[in-house]
């Protein structure tokens, strides 16, 4: 039995939502019990399906998200399960997709929309900056926009031009948007569910090179924790994670750079250096506390990001850490980022992307001789 | 109709083109789908500029494009709103000159469009206005002072869009048409019979979002009326620089929806055309595009000088087509309006003007902390910090002010 489409219970709704927790539980029992190898893509797909089961006002739309299941298959099976009213293809027009989502969110829905690739989201920039980000503010809080804009981003997949941008700074710079980016399979599930539940608009940046990353994850347990509200008040928003504890220096990374940072920390350990890795998780809001606590402890920091370094999220992180940790720093904070060039052609991307060696060189430069 | 989640709709996005629900809708008019979509050969005009009802055969109607004259009650209400709207436009322009408002894009000359756009809608319907549509928003029932808050400068919007079912007045051109599409889409999915009227101007039809909104609305068969006030200028740029189409209403056929042209200074024709458009939309035969042929009698805003780009003779020509005088002559001639009625309506317009002078004359104290209050539904730690910073800065300023006053004693 599938739920009738009704207004979202929160945000701008005036009708109580027909939640279908029973349906969600039925889906839960279909999952094999216990931890299983799960890809990021599967975790995101499951999060979408579970959110659609739980709340009939959750709608998924975009380009090729219906029958095809999305070019990355993140929406695979949703149209078959929930019908063409709840997961559907739109005309090929990104501003239209975002603008229509704004109207739907005003009128009681929780749209989760897909921008096919990072650089293809730019036609929607005006809708995102002038309306998605500002509607709540312009209406003095009267209108909430509970919508999620999913954007596959970043490089490392050998994509041709316009398929590998790291566009997070545009959104992070815009007041009124929250910007999430998961770096683990479990966070893929957890953070997407939280983004869909959020009464604020969330730009959900998915590291596309990690879609096929597998972790051992118990999706049924994650679903149970989410739906029982066990994580209420302990959500991911504004909470960075210590992805690997260490004592000598802190590597600060997010999204696709987290696994690179972890690999660098692993290599450094072999050389006798203990690096702590912080996974930022939500760029907006930023977890100053966790990041500063780590840097105060280690006294040294390297920020890692695929995006160009100039006027970027990485420069923001350096500024924030410096403001909070100056007297604890044994060395200037270093950055390892993409060069300030347009994202390169596939054969050149290995020279562009931050890699383990470049990170270890930056760590070596942190004035250890003192 | 309630749509259940596992129900496959017979005519959603995958099954479009003339061979669908629209064909059924058009059958009742006895014309082809193309003739239904194309605007009538002439604009619909019912009352001429001299205030005379035109003979039925000369109103621009044709088979499938027939419009009954609206009832007397509706016409009298429209006239009342026209007079109020004109008074509000001129009062607001005066308040700008007096420095009480930052700016006011007046719809002087376009009041018939403003009034008809609001009066054609039912209580459950939605309207998405532009910055020039303050009179339409007011006619819809929003408090006049709240409508003008955006121009007074203490906040971006003064009314609750959800309470009135009126979107926030949009400054970025045509972006609001897509919001109208979304509101209509959500309503349709829930099986509600909401109709949404989305407003824009002639210049705005050049924007990409105009195209995307009309296309989305047509593909998803949504109950949206795109109401274009063709007032001939986008600030200084005339219509010929925006479009080479036979008319803006002709754009409809390219999207697979019906278009119509109407005299935008004839509130009788506007109500007739928009009332039918609302009925068609409510009946599931939307969307539609209605182009109103009107004129912006004043400059774009007080900051603009329209003598640089148009002749006074052109303005004078349009003054003779004034929508308010035309309607007064028509209603008086029909015996619907007498001196008492006119006096009552004038008094009401003066009362609204007084309400505006009073409401916009008082200095409403602004709260600096409101800067941070509505950015997010769930506040971020960074904004809490910045809010505390500002509070502290203001407290220190206040303390130092009072110190220097003490010292001055």
CATH superfamily label of the largest domain in chain A: Thiamin diphosphate (ThDP)-binding fold, Pyr/PP domains
Number of helices of chain A: 14
The neighbouring-strand order within the major sheet of chain B is: 1-2-3-7-6
Question: How many independent structural domains of chain B?
Answer: 2
Oligomer: heterodimer
3D shape of chain A: globular
Radius of gyration of chain B over all CA atoms, rounded: 24 Å
CATH-defined superfamily of the largest domain in chain B: Thiamin diphosphate (ThDP)-binding fold, Pyr/PP domains
Q: Overview of this structure, please?
A:
The complex is a heterodimer of chains A (370) and B (409). Chain A is an alpha/beta fold. Chain A contains 14 helices and 14 strands. Chain A has 2 domains: 207 residues, Rossmann fold, CATH 3.40.50; 124 residues, Rossmann fold (3-Layer(aba) Sandwich). Chain A has a 7-stranded mixed β-sheet with strand order 3-2-4-5-7-6-12, with helices on both faces. Chain A has a 5-stranded mixed β-sheet with strand order 9-11-10-13-14, with helices on both faces. A two-stranded antiparallel sheet of chain A has the order 1-8. Chain B folds into 2 domains: 341 residues, Thiamin diphosphate (ThDP)-binding fold, Pyr/PP domains (Rossmann fold), CATH 3.40.50; 39 residues. In chain B, helix 11 links the parallel strand 6 and strand 7. In chain B, 49% of the residues are buried. Chain B has 409 residues and is α/β, with parallel strands linked by helices. In chain B, 46% of the residues lie in helices and 8% in strands. The N terminus of chain B is likely disordered. Chains A and B meet through helix 4, helix 5 and helix 6 of A and helix 7, helix 8 and helix 9 of B.
């Amino acid at each position: 039995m599938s739920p009738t489409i009704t207004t979202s219970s929160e945000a701008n709704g005036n009708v109580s939502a027909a939640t279908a927790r029973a349906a969600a539980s039925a889906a839960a029992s279909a999952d094999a019990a216990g931890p299983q190898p799960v890809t990021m893509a599967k975790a995101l797909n499951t999060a979408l399906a579970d959110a659609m089961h739980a709340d009939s006002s959750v709608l998924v739309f975009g380009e090729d998200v219906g029958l095809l299941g999305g070019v990355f298959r993140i929406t695979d099976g949703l149209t078959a399960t929930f019908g063409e009213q709840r997961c559907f293809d739109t005309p090929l027009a990104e501003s239209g997709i975002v603008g229509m989502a704004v109207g739907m969110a005003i009128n009681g829905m929780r749209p989760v929309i897909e921008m096919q690739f990072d650089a293809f989201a730019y036609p929607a920039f005006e809708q995102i900056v002038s309306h998605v980000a500002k509607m709540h503010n312009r209406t003095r809080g009267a209108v909430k926009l509970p919508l999620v804009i999913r954007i596959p981003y970043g490089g490392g997949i050998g994509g041709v031009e316009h398929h590998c941008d790291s566009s997070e700074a545009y959104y992070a710079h815009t007041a009124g948007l929250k910007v999430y980016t998961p770096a683990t399979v479990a966070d893929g599930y957890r953070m997407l569910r939280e983004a869909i539940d959020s009464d604020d608009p969330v730009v959900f940046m998915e590291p596309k090179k990690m879609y096929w990353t597998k972790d051992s994850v118990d999706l049924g347990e994650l679903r149970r924790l989410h739906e029982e509200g066990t994580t209420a008040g302990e959500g991911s928003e504004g909470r960075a994670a210590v992805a690997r504890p260490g004592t000598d220096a802190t590597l600060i990374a997010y999204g696709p750079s987290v696994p690179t940072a972890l690999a660098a920390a692993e290599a450094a350990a072999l050389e006798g250096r203990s690096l702590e890795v912080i996974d930022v998780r939500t760029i907006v809001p930023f977890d100053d506390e966790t990041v500063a606590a780590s840097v105060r402890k280690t006294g040294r920091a390297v920020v890692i990001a695929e995006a160009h370094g100039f006027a970027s999220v990485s420069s923001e992180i350096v500024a924030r850490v410096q403001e909070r940790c100056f007297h604890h720093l044994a060395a200037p904070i270093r950055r390892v980022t993409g060069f300030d060039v347009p994202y390169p052609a596939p054969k050149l991307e290995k020279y562009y992307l931050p890699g383990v060696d470049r990170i270890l060189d930056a760590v070596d430069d942190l004035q250890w001789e003192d | 109709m309630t749509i259940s989640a596992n129900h496959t709709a017979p005519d959603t996005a995958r099954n479009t083109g003339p061979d669908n629900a629209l064909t059924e809708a058009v059958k009742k008019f006895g014309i082809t789908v193309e003739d239904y979509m194309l605007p009538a050969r002439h604009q619909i005009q019912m009352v001429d500029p001299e205030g005379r009802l035109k003979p039925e055969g000369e109103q621009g109607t044709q088979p499938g494009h027939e419009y009954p004259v609206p009832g007397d009650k509706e016409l009298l209400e429209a006239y009342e709103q026209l007079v109020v709207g004109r008074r509000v436009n001129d009062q607001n322009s005066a308040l700008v000159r007096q420095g009480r408002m930052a700016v006011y894009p007046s719809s002087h000359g376009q009041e018939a469009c403003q009034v008809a756009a609001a009066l054609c809608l039912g209580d459950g319907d939605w309207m998405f206005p532009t910055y020039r549509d303050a009179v339409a928003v007011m006619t819809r029932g929003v408090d006049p002072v709240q409508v003008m808050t955006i121009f007074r400068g203490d906040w971006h919007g003064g009314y609750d869009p959800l309470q009135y079912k009126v979107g926030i007045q949009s400054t970025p051109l045509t972006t609001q048409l897509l919001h109208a599409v979304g509101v209509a889409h959500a309503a349709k999915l829930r099986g509600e019979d909401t109709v949404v009227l989305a407003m824009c101007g002639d210049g705005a039809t050049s924007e990409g979002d105009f195209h995307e909104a009309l296309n989305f609305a047509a593909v998803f068969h949504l109950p949206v009326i795109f109401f274009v006030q063709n007032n001939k200028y986008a600030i200084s740029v005339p219509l010929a620089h925006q479009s080479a189409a036979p008319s803006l209403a002709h754009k409809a056929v390219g999207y697979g929806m019906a278009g119509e042209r109407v005299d935008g200074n004839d509130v009788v024709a506007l109500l007739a055309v928009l009332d039918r458009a609302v009925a068609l939309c409510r009946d599931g035969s939307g969307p539609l595009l209605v182009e109103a042929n009107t004129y912006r009698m004043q400059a774009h805003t007080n900051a603009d000088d329209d003598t640089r780009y148009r002749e006074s003779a052109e303005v004078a020509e349009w003054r003779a087509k004034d929508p308010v005088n035309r309607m007064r002559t028509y209603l008086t001639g029909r015996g619907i309006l007498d001196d008492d009625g006119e006096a009552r309506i004038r008094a009401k317009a003066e009362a609204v003007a007084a309400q505006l002078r009073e409401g916009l004359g008082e200095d409403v104290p602004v709260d600096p902390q409101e800067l941070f209050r509505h950015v997010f539904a769930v506040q971020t730690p960074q904004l809490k910090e910045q809010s505390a910073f500002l509070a502290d800065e203001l407290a220190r300023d206040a303390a130092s002010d009072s110190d220097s006053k003490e010292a001055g004693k």
